Amino acid sequence: MTLSADQQAEIDALRAETHQTLRATVPGMEAHLYKAYPVLDHGFVRVVDYMGDDSAICQAARVSYGRGTKSVQNDEGLIRYLMRHWHSTPFEMCELKLHVKLPVFVARQWIRHRTANVNEYSARYSILDREFYIPGPEHLAAQSVVNNQGRGEALTGEEAARVLEYLKADSARAYDHYEEMISDEGQQGLARELARMNLPANIYTQWYWKVDLHNLLHFLRLRADSHAQYEIRVYAEEICKLVADWVPFAYKAFEDYRLGAVTLSSQMVDCLRRMLKGEEVTEENCGMSKREWREFMATIE
């Protein structure tokens, strides 16, 4: 992980300050404020600000649903009820603002979640640092033979060494040309907004990302899943740790009802019922496609 001198100075100054407030604070989250947690080789995640806690979720729910929630005896029970029955609005009452440093190709996946406020480092205005994501040898893998958007077995031997060298050499060469093009020594120098087009997708960018808890949990459900691409999954896993300390009741419910749960189609439910009755259910008589059957069997075995 690499922090600039200015960023480290900002973090040190902010962590040295204390403020009195009447708003809700969470000790676990206060401990995380401004700290940068490393991800990948040069990336990080740090909490810039947060709003709300478990109680804020319950407060919003009781205002919204009134007498309908009075049978729930405590905050944790109410939160689990809300999560279990897919009530979303109360979770929108909490917000989190993160500073994230990440490779551009990961950012392009991340930005697909169009439910947050984002302000990214401007390569039109500033010069990007010479920092590239280079995978560890164990993460250099061949194309999956069963999933068109996934990876399979790790590359080995000469092939792995050759690919790793390509990644390092191409990244360095592209940045050398970038620096040369924008230089104004003995030439006019190409505009930064044009020179950046020659940089590879593994160069690091940074952004501030602010999102409410409902949409954050949706992001984590997809990106912290074992099927998510490794390079974005490690960011999601780091954020999961932060959320667990911020809203522990909500995060536990999320683990139980979203992250650790599965969704069954009506055909899958029908097959499961038939199995429980002792009927032999096979791929031929299940009424599902081969892939659906494979996923169903992986779920129940």
UniProtKB/TrEMBL annotation:
In the record's cofactor note, how is the cofactor described as bound? Binds 4 FAD per tetramer. Each FAD binding site is formed by three monomers.
Q: Give binding positions for FAD.
A: 89, 112-114, 120, 212-214, 218
> Pathway, per Swiss-Prot/TrEMBL?
Pyrimidine metabolism; dTTP biosynthesis
Query: What keywords are assigned to this protein?
Result: FAD, Flavoprotein, Methyltransferase, NADP, Nucleotide biosynthesis, Transferase
Please give the Gene Ontology molecular function terms for this protein.
flavin adenine dinucleotide binding; NADPH binding; thymidylate synthase (FAD) activity; thymidylate synthase activity
Q: Name one GO biological process term.
A: dTMP biosynthetic process
What Pfam families does the record tag this protein with? Thy1
What enzyme category does the UniProt record give? Answer: transferase
- Cofactor(s) this protein cannot do without: FAD
The active site of this protein is located at: 223
* Residues binding dUMP: 109-112, 120-124, 196, 223
Q: Which reaction does it catalyse?
A: dUMP + (6R)-5,10-methylene-5,6,7,8-tetrahydrofolate + NADPH + H(+) = dTMP + (6S)-5,6,7,8-tetrahydrofolate + NADP(+)
Record EC number: 2.1.1.148
Q: Which InterPro entries match?
A: Thymidylate_synthase_ThyX, Thymidylate_synthase_ThyX_sf
**SUBUNIT field:** Homotetramer.
Annotated NCBIfam families: thyX (TIGR02170)
**Family, per the entry?**
Belongs to the thymidylate synthase ThyX family.
Q: What does this protein do?
A: Catalyzes the reductive methylation of 2'-deoxyuridine-5'-monophosphate (dUMP) to 2'-deoxythymidine-5'-monophosphate (dTMP) while utilizing 5,10-methylenetetrahydrofolate (mTHF) as the methyl donor, and NADPH and FADH(2) as the reductant.
* Name this protein carries in UniProt: Flavin-dependent thymidylate synthase
Taxonomic placement: Bacteria, Pseudomonadati, Pseudomonadota, Alphaproteobacteria, Rhodobacterales
What is this protein's gene name?
Answer: thyX
